[in-house]
Amino acid sequence: MTLQKLARELDETARQTAAMVDGITDALAVLGDRNLNAEQRTKQAVAMIVSALQGQDRIEQRCQNMALAVRQFALLPPTAPDTDYEEIWANLVLDELRVPTLSGIAASQSTGEVDLF
């Protein structure tokens, strides 16, 4: 179960990374939109890029939390009960990793915005 959860969280991290890149790509499209004046294009694109880049911090936190969990998993003996693995997840900082009901949840929500839990 722990490896399945880790795989789900890695998939979610990859999805969030792609959403961040899509946000920047959309901003570049706005910069090229000749239907807006230069000031509008710049202002809107900058806001979109800033919003997309805010996700980088969250993605970094997710990766650091997952790396910590994996390092702790590696220290457990092969006969460790599932509760030991669950306790490691439960002690992580990010709620989306720590709380089982939030695991991978951002992937199932679509707001049209960059989803960065």
Structure description:
With 117 residues, the chain is mostly helical. 69% of the residues lie in helices and 0% in strands. Helix 1 (2-31) packs antiparallel against helix 2. It is rod-shaped, with a radius of gyration of 18 Å. The model has no long low-confidence stretch (mean pLDDT 87).
Order of helices and strands: HHHH
Rounded to an integer, what's the Rg over CA atoms? 18 Å
Report the average pLDDT across residues.
87
Number of separate helices: 4
Q: Kindly, what is the distance between the CA atoms of the first and last residues, rounded to a whole number of angstroms?
A: 23 Å
What general outline do the C-alpha atoms trace?
Answer: rod-shaped
The number of strands is 0
Percent of residues in helices: 55-70%
